[in-house]
């Protein structure tokens, strides 16, 4: 099946992130280089080596879900439902007239309901806290955001959820595209969500030595590709997109934002948490995504990097890009939104998809902030400090997850 004659397009986006409680606010703040990193408020972080995070602030889930639904679900679901509603509204879909059996949901998560697991463990150890909630188990499951969105919108098409660690959100886009091209659905509401800013998560990641400890300067803590980076910043958020066949979008007079041209998955088969430093399989995923999208390397305008702000990831990603693009890599702008929002885990790849689509729409790419002195092994054009106005015909999003799962998706302007 030819991806260019059977296009899958983005028609709506919703987001709650550390820099905005909707997609357009998030986008404008990313373009402005605004950091959403600050001291943790979800719990008292005193005594932990890392006390900063990218939190979604000012979100009132009671405006989205009634008290009964709130009690049976966890925060990562609350964020997903809110973002999904925004995405559907942005797409202009009229669910009253659509065939709901042809609308599906693919929402992935990496950490899932870890916050409910942690709180329920405390309740078990200390019964004075009130005991275990009857919906504890169901609220923690990875598939709950997708199921709750399906229930919320009343759609009956395929509903799935996968976990690919930090590649989860981007893989949702790829899986949604496959469902549409295989004619299992006309529309898929898809993306990623995670919300697990908890003491145990932070203690565990600190023990791994992967978190930034720049507690005295939170906004400068996430610094992808910079020689002074000391780890990533953990965050939370949800980014949901509406994907549909181009024919379906045309039938209802909707102008697409961008096309999802193709993508690829590979595995490092190297280590449970460390990426393979040679970047070979990350490069293979990029190259395969370009082939499947019928894109030549020189046609790529922009790369939204995984760019975590860890020593290993930033170097391997830079090496992988060079391996695929050769000398032309130096002329391709590469930037990391994680410099502003931190690593929002299961939603990170979905945010990269959003950045690619909106870069195509608005002909501008966001910056990598806090990039003051590039690591000598990271020697590409990382769009330091300021957004860059430029035409974007094709954009590539990278997402590399714990366990060596590499996902790459290419986005293009739509074609008639």
Number of beta strands: 14
Would you give the CATH topology of the largest domain?
A: Peroxisomal Thiolase, Chain A, domain 1
The helicity comes to: 25-40%
Structural class: alpha/beta
Count of runs of 4 or more consecutive helical residues: 13
CATH superfamily of the largest domain: Thiolase/Chalcone synthase
Q: Write down the overall mean pLDDT.
A: 95
> How widely separated are the two ends?
17 Å
Shape: globular
Strand order of the largest sheet: 5-4-6-7-1-8-14-13-9-10
Question: Beta-strand level of the residues, as a percent range?
Answer: 15-25%
Order of helices and strands: EHEEHHEHHHEHEHEHEHEHEHHEEEE
Counting copies of identical and different chains, the oligomeric state is: single chain
- What is the count of structural domains? 2
The CATH class label of the largest domain is: Alpha Beta
Quick structural overview:
This protein is 32% helix and 18% strand. By secondary structure, it is of the alpha/beta class.
Q: What can you see in these coordinates?
A:
With 416 residues, the chain is an alpha/beta fold. It has 2 domains: 244 residues, Thiolase/Chalcone synthase (Peroxisomal Thiolase, Chain A, domain 1); 151 residues, Thiolase/Chalcone synthase (Peroxisomal Thiolase, Chain A, domain 1, 3-Layer(aba) Sandwich), CATH 3.40.47. It is 32% helix and 18% strand. It has 13 helices and 14 strands. The chain has a 10-stranded mixed beta sheet with strand order 5-4-6-7-1-8-14-13-9-10, with helices on both faces. A two-stranded antiparallel ribbon has the order 2-3. Strand 13 and strand 14 form a beta hairpin. Helix 3 crosses helix 6, helix 7 packs across helix 13 and helix 10 packs across helix 11. The longest helix has 17 residues. The N terminus is likely disordered.
């Amino acid at each position: 099946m030819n991806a260019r004659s059977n296009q899958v397009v983005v028609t709506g986006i919703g987001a709650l992130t550390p820099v905005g409680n909707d997609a357009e606010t998030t986008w404008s703040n990313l373009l402005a280089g605004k950091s959403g990193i600050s001291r943790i408020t979800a719990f008292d972080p005193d005594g932990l080596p890392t006390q900063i995070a990218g939190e979604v602030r000012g979100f009132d889930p009671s405006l989205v879900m009634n008290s009964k639904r709130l009690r049976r679900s966890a925060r990562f679901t609350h964020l997903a439902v809110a973002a999904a509603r925004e995405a559907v509204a942005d797409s202009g879909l009229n669910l009253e007239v659509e065939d709901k059996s042809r609308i599906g949901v693919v929402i992935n998560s990496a950490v899932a309901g870890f916050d409910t697991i942690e709180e329920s463990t405390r309740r078990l150890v200390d019964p004075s806290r009130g005991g275990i909630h009857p919906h504890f188990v169901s609220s923690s499951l990875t598939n709950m955001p997708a199921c709750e969105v399906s229930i919320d919108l009343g759609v009956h098409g395929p509903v799935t959820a996968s976990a690919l660690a930090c590649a989860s959100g981007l893989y949702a886009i790829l899986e949604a595209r496959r469902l549409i091209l295989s004619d299992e659905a006309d529309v898929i509401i898809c993306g990623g969500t995670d919300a697990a800013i908890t003491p145990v998560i932070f203690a565990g990641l600190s023990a791994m030595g992967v978190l930034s400890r720049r507690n005295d300067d939170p906004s400068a803590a996430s610094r992808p590709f910079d020689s002074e980076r000391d780890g990533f910043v953990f965050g939370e958020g949800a980014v949901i997109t509406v994907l549909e066949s181009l024919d379906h979008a045309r039938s209802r007079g909707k102008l697409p934002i961008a096309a999802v041209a193709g993508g690829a998955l590979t595995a490092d088969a190297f280590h449970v948490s460390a990426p393979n430093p040679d970047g070979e399989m990350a490069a293979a995923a990029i190259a395969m995504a370009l082939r499947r999208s019928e894109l030549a390397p020189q046609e790529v305008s922009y790369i939204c990097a995984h760019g975590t702000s860890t020593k290993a990831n930033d170097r391997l990603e830079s090496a992988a890009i060079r391996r695929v693009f050769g000398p032309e890599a130096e002329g391709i702008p590469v930037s990391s939104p994680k410099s502003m929002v931190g690593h929002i885990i299961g939603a990170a790849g979905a945010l990269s998809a959003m950045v690619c689509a909106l870069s195509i729409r608005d002909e501008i790419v966001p910056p990598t902030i806090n990039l003051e002195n590039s690591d000598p092994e990271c020697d590409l054009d990382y769009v330091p400090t300021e957004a860059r106005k430029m035409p974007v015909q094709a954009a590539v999003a990278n997402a590399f997850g714990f366990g060596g799962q590499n996902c790459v998706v290419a986005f293009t302007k739509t074609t008639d």
